[in-house]
Amino acid sequence: MLLLAFDTATPAVTVALHDGLGVVAHETAVDARRHGELLAPSIGRVLDKAGAGPADLTAIAVGTGPGPYTGLRVGLVTARVLGSALSVPVDGICTLDIIAAEARAEAAAREFVVATDARRREVYWARYSATAERLSEPQVSRPALVPAGCPVAGEGPRLHAELAEAGHTIGPRYPSAVQLAQIAADRLARGAPAAPPEARYLRRPDAREPGPPKRVTPSASCGGAASPGRRSEERATREGGGEGRWGRGPGPGGERET
């Protein structure tokens, strides 16, 4: 088995390779604006470190978020393209679950929360049992609405003071592809079916298609009434005794043009 795992749902672009016994190579870079530039080279370097090529891969695992639209989409599209090209299964795993699996030890047998940055002064979050089983579906909200009194993992408590104050901060800050690869390898060993690599966006992307252009001047109504501009011109025509706009009526000086 040779499983490639990566996640791009947070500012971290993280990649790892698992051979069925353990992770044989991994790499992580943190840059919230360069997911598209970083992912493919990182995959290439990780494969090179292991002396492998794309044709050697037997499975792929990818983080499905929640996360900002652009970064998350880079990882999911790459996973789907590779899976289709190589005819290997692609397993989609919630990014919050990846962080939770690593944070479990620091939670000290207590329930805890994972919260990541959702921008707009909000966080993506979910609540977990002491064994890192998710107790709620991922949500997006203001930090003040996250349950208080629990340890909090992820980037959320590092960015929002109210989260850090509500419960002590535990690691990690970002998901690790090492942990993702181990989760996916365990699932394969148990014979669990691959989960679809579907994005957990939770809200619409910031960028949207532009709407139709706005009309600058009012048009005639359904009953055929002329627009205000048209009516004023007709009034000028009647008062001037001609066609208006100095066409055959009085000119600007009050004399009739010939």
Give a structural overview.
This protein is of the alpha/beta class. The protein has a single domain, classed as Nucleotidyltransferase, domain 5. The protein is built from seven helices and nine strands, in the order E-E-E-H-E-H-E-H-E-E-E-E-H-H-H-H. It has a five-stranded mixed β-sheet with strand order 3-2-1-4-5, sandwiched between helices. Strands 8-7-6-9 form a four-stranded mixed β-sheet. Strand 6 and strand 7 form a beta hairpin. Helix 1 packs across helix 2. It is globular. The relative contact order is 0.15.
Radius of gyration: 30 Å
The CATH topology is given as Nucleotidyltransferase, domain 5
Proportion of residues in extended strands:
15-25%
CATH superfamily: ATPase, nucleotide binding domain
Number of strand segments: 9
Give the H and E element order.
EEEHEHEHEEEEHHHH
Low-confidence stretches: 216-234, 236-258
CATH class: Alpha Beta
Question: Separation of termini?
Answer: 95 Å
**Considering DSSP H and I runs of 4 or more, what fraction of the residues is helical?**
25-40%
From the spread of the alpha carbons, the general shape counts as: globular
- Biggest sheet descriptor: 5 strands, mixed
Topology:
Layout: E1 3-7, E2 12-18, E3 23-30, H1 35-49, E4 59-63, H2 69-86, E5 90-93, H3 95-103, E6 112-119, E7 122-128, E8 139-141, E9 152-153, H4 156-159, H5 161-166, H6 177-190, H7 228-240
Helix pairs in contact: 1-2, 3-6
